[in-house]
Amino acid sequence: MSEQEIEAALREVPGWRRNGDEITRSYGIRYHGGVALIVHVADVERLIGHHADIDLRWDNVRFGITTHDAGHKLTAADFDLAKRIDELAQAHGAEALVD
Questions:
Q1: How far apart are CA 77 and CA 48, in angstroms?
Q2: Does the predicted model carry a pTM greater than 0.85?
Q3: Using CA of residue 25, residue 57, residue 50, residue 65, what is the dihedral sign?
Q4: Contacts with 50 (C-beta within 8 Å, 6 or more apart), sequence order
Q5: Could you tell me if 56 and 34 are in contact, meaning their C-beta atoms sit under 8 angstroms apart?
Q6: What pLDDT band is residue 91 in, cutting at 50, 70 and 90?
Q7: How far apart, in whole angstroms, are the C-alpha atoms of residue 23 and residue 36?
Q8: Which residues lie below 8 Å from residue 18, measured CB to CB, with a gap of 6+?
Q9: Is 12 helix (H, G, I), strand (E, B) or coil?
Q10: What are the helix (H) ranges across 49-99?
Q11: Please, is 82 exposed, middle or buried when counting C-beta atoms within 10 Å of its C-beta (0-12, 13-18, 19+)?
Q12: Which of the two ends of the chain, N or C, has the fewest CB atoms closer than 10 A to its terminal CB?
């Protein structure tokens, strides 16, 4: 994706932040709720063939997305997954945090 395409895609996923060639977002959620959220995200990831890096802590979970197969560059698939994660996080009652 070009820089302009990335900037436009970021506007479509408010709350996600760019960190180099990765987009990230954290959610406040208790540990066991975070585990359940991760299981649902992993199921969707399996279906679409695209995966986030996930960091689970006691009271939050952080997702980092880049396209490994594209040399760790941002692609449209990353922003699609971000939207899906947002929907699942909302369904689990996770609170969006500022990275």
A1: 9
A2: yes
A3: positive
A4: 67, 77, 78, 80, 81
A5: yes
A6: very high
A7: 22
A8: 6, 10, 74
A9: coil
A10: 76-91
A11: buried
A12: C
Task: Name, in order, each residue with C-beta under 8 angstroms of 96's C-beta and a sequence gap of 6 or more.
Answer: 15, 25, 26, 27, 28, 89
**Does pLDDT of 22 surpass 90?**
yes
Q: How far is 63 from 67, CA to CA, in rounded Å?
A: 13
Contact 55, 82 (CB under 8 A): no
56 within 8 A of 38, measured Cβ to Cβ: yes
Assess contact for 13 and 79: CB atoms under 8 A.
Answer: yes
Q: Assign residue 72 a region (left: φ > 0; alpha: ψ between -120 and 50; beta: otherwise).
A: left
